[in-house]
Amino acid sequence: MRKHMEILPKTGFIQAQSRFNAQLKFLPRISLSKDAMELFDEDTGVLEVPLTVLVAGQVKPVPFTMQAVVTCSELLFDRAQVDFGFCSVNQSVRSSVRLTNTSLLPQDFGFLGVPDFMEVQPNDGFGTLLPQETLEVDLIFSANKAKEYSFQLHCKSGINRDFPLTCQAVGVRPPLQLSHSLVQFGATAVGDRSTAMLYLTNHQTNHQTINHQNQQPAPPVTKDTMAPPRLFSFSLPQPSDLSITPSAGRLLPGERCLIQVTFRPRLLDEDIREEALRLFLRAKLLREKELERSRQAELEAKKDLPVETSKGKKAPVIPKNSKVSDVPQTELLTELPEPADIQPGSEHFEEARASLLYSFTQRYSEHTVSCFVSDGDPPEEDLQAQPAWSSFNTLYLQLQCPTVQPPLVVTSNNGHKSIDFHQVAVGEKVVKRFTVQNISKESLDLRSSVLDVHGPFSLLNALRCIRPGETHTLVLAFSPSLEKKFSETLEVRCQKMTLEMTLRGEGVLPAVTCSHPGGLLDLGYVLEKESTSHVLKMQNSSAVAVVFRVQLASLCPSRPPGGADGVASLLRGYSGSQLQPTVGTQNLSGLSVFSVLPAEGSIAPGQSQDLMVSFQPDHPSVCYSDRMTVELRNKSVVCVLDLRGAASSHNMYLCGGDPLTVPIESLLPPLITAQPQITGQR
User: Which residues form the CFAP74 fourth Ig-like domain (predicted)?
Assistant: First the structure.
C-alpha cells in the first residue's frame, strides 16, 4: 500500500498531556486492485487497510483501520469520433454528444483549448457532473475556410485527467453567399411590417466540379474555366408571415442581387375561428342565464298576485318593464356553428378578430429559410427540366420575429384596412370615412404619408394626438379625372407602428344621351297666358349613377344684363329668317317663359329620366327664345337646345314670310301714326 498511501510524519514526539496530529494521504492508483488484492473488493470498491502505531516504551501497539470506497474517475463520451460532414463557410453545423460521469463522486469538467471555429455548449463547455449523471453537450462547428478539418477536443476533469474527442469536417464555400445569415427583426405590431435588406452575391469566378459518378458533391476544385450562372430559390415555411423578394432568380459570376425580407405578422384564420366559437358559446350561456332569471322573475310575480275578489277587483297586471324574455327558446338553443362556416369578412369572424387584437400580448417565433442553389442552368435540350443542385451549396437564413400588440386598430368597415370607392364618374367626388382607435396605454401622435398631389385621392381632415381609448375619424375623398382604375396606399403612422390603408377606386366616363339630337326645339305658337310642353328623355348607359343639372341661359347669373346679346345682333345686322338671339323676349311678369322639370336630379345606371320643357308666355310675341343646357356634375355637356316659341292674342294669326321687324322687341313703346286719307281723283 506504500504506492497508494502516505503518512506524514512517520515519526513524532508527544509531550505529556498533549496531542499529536499525523496526516494520512490516500492516493489510489489504477494498480490498486493488483497491489492489494486481499484488502480491496473490486465488486463493491471497498478498501480496508489495517494500520499499527508503535509507541516507544509501550509493549502493546495501537491498531486502527483505514476504510475507503474507491471509485473510478472516468468521463465517457457516447462516441469516439464526431463527423460534421460538409459545412458551408459562414454557416454552422451542430452535433450532440453525451458525456457521462461513471464515478460515484461529482466531477468538474471543462473543454480546454477549443479552436476558434468550434463552440461548446452549455456554459461554454464547463460544468459539474453529479455521480452517474449524463449531460448532452452541443458541439457547434463553423467553418471559416474551404478545407478539410481534423482536430481533437480535450475535456479535462477536476483531477487533470484528459479525455480527447476526435472530430472531422469539410468546409466548403458555396457559389452564392448572403451578406447576413441572421436577421433579428424589431418588435413588430400585428398588422404592421418590418423589412430587412440583404445581398446575395455570386462570388465565384472558377468552375466547381461535382463527382457525377456517385452523385456526391466534392470539395471545391480550382480550374481555369469560368463558373456557370447559378439559379437560386428561397423556400419559405407555410403558412408564414414572411415574404422574400425576389424569391427566385439567376446570378452570373460576380453579380449581386438585393434581397428584401419582409415580416408582416397577422392573426391566423384558425385562431380567429376558435375565438369566434368561444365568443358564440359565451353569448349563448349568457342568453340562457338571462332567460332563466326572467323565468324566475315571472314565477315570483305570479306568486305575488292576489286572488280576484267577489267585488270585482282585478289583480294588478305585471309591469311592462318586467324582464320577460322575448327571445324564443329555439334561438337560445342554437347549435354551435362549424369552424368552416365562419368565413372571413362575416360578423362573427370580425368580432373574433377584434377580440384577439384587444387581448393580444406578445409572440416570438424563429424561422430558418433555405435557399437552394443550382449547379448551373438547365440543359439546352430541355429548359423546363429541373436543374442539378448540391445539398452543401444550400444557404440558410435564420429569422427571429417578435410580435407585439398593435397600439392602433381600425374600428370601422369591419376592421378591414382597405377602402374601395368602387366606380365613380369622372369629375365627381365621393367621400368616405374610416375610424381608428388607440388601444394602447400611451397617447399616440398620429401622422400620415403624403398622397399623390396629382392623384384622385385626398385626405380632407387633419390628424391629431389621441389618448388611450380614444378614436379618430379620417375623411378621404376620391375624385377621378381619367377613365381607369386607381390604387394608392395611405400610411397612418404613430410612434410604434405604421397602419397601411389601401385606397381603391375606378374612374368611369358617364354615358348619358338625350332623345333630342340638339339644336333648335320649336314649341310653336300658343295663346297668351296658356302653355305647351315637350318631353325629353335622358338615358344613362354607364355603370354608375350620374347627377345632372339643367341650366337656362335666361336664368344664368353670367348673362349680360339689359339685353346686350340683342344689341350685338343689331350691330352685326341680320339678313335671314333664322337669325335669333340666345335669350329673346321674356315674360313681363318676371317669370321665365321657359321652364324645365326636374331642373336637377340623379339617373341610376341603365335607367332613364324624363325632362318636361314648358312654354308659358304672358303676352303676344314671336321673339321668345332661350337656350337650355344639360350638364353633368363633372361639367360635361350632354346636350344644348335652343328653345323657341311664339304667342298670339287671337286664334287666327299670320306666320311666315320675310321678317318686317328686328328679331327682338324694342324697349320703346310702339309708334302710333295717323292713317293717311286716300282720296280718289275726280
Answer: 77-171
- Residue 16 backbone phi and psi in degrees, to 5: -65, 140
Whole-number Å distance between alpha carbons of 599 and 539: 16
The Cα 505–Cα 482 span in angstroms is 11
Which H or E run includes 299?
helix 269-303
pLDDT digits (tens, 9 = 90+) for 420-437: 999 998 888 999 999 999
Residue 36 belongs to what domain range? Answer: 5-69
Tell me, yes or no, whether 497 lies in a domain. Answer: yes
Q: Are residues 526 and 630 in the same domain?
A: yes
Cβ atoms 137, 121 nearer than 8 A: yes
Per-residue pLDDT tens over the stretch 245-284: 999 998 888 889 999 999 999 888 778 788 888 887 888 8
CA–CA dist 583, 643 (Å, integer): 9
Please report whether residue 137 resides in a domain. yes
CA dihedral sign of residues 222, 223, 226, 230 = negative
Q: Indicate the number of domains in the chain.
A: 4
Domain boundary among 28, 43, 69: 69
Query: Exposed (0-12), middle (13-18) or buried (19+): which is 15, by Cβ within 10 Å?
Result: exposed
pTM score: 0.62
The per-residue DSSP string of 174-226 comes to -SEEES-SEEEPPPEETT--EEEEEEEEE---S---EETTTTEE------SSP
